[in-house]
Write a structure and sequence with these properties.
By secondary structure, this protein is mainly alpha-helical. The chain is built from three helices and no strands. The protein starts with 5 loop residues before the first helix and ends in a 14-residue tail after the last helix.
Length: 74
Amino acid sequence: MTNLNIEDIHKIREEHAVLTRNMAFDEYKAELHNDIKPLLSILKSMKSKRPYSSFERETLNVAEPPAEYKTKKS
């Protein structure tokens, strides 16, 4: 996908509004589902087929130390 500027975004939104203006909600929802189906398939295919081992699962749980805020003394 290329970088979009604000004019491109407004044009896309206007075209979408025209195309969906007379749609019933169920029809809109069905069309939206058909539009996202290819992307959903790609995401599902990228999902790992095997569960993580306990070691991998432990190394994925990473947390940052709590932040310490200094207060201004009066």
